[in-house]
């Protein structure tokens, strides 16, 4: 991604995505990307807590991109 779009500043952060959002530097506008189906592994309470904490960390001008997945047959997942 960085090679294809050199104008983007991309920084990965290894952390607990729910409780360590405060580790994200707040120096510029941020696009928070949450890819994959991880959110589907959370229960309703966990999803609400994550969204609440994310909302508290986001600043004016920031964006949020959520990637979601469809429910798939286990044979399709095992093949992947």
From TrEMBL:
It comes from marine sediment metagenome. The keyword Transferase applies. GO terms for biological process: methylation. This is Histidine-specific methyltransferase SAM-dependent domain-containing protein. One of its GO terms (molecular function) is methyltransferase activity. InterPro entries: EgtD_Methyltrsf_superfamily, MeTrfase_dom, SAM-dependent_MTases_sf. The keyword Transport does not apply. Residues 1-80 form the Histidine-specific methyltransferase SAM-dependent domain. Keywords: Methyltransferase, Transferase.
């Amino acid at each position: 991604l960085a090679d294809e779009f050199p104008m983007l500043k991309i920084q990965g952060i290894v952390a607990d995505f729910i409780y360590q959002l405060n580790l994200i530097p707040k120096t510029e506008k941020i696009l928070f990307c949450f890819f994959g189906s991880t959110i589907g592994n959370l229960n309703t309470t966990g999803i609400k807590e994550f969204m609440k904490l994310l909302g508290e960390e986001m600043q004016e001008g920031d964006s949020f991109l959520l990637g979601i997945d469809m429910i798939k047959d286990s044979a399709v997942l095992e093949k992947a």
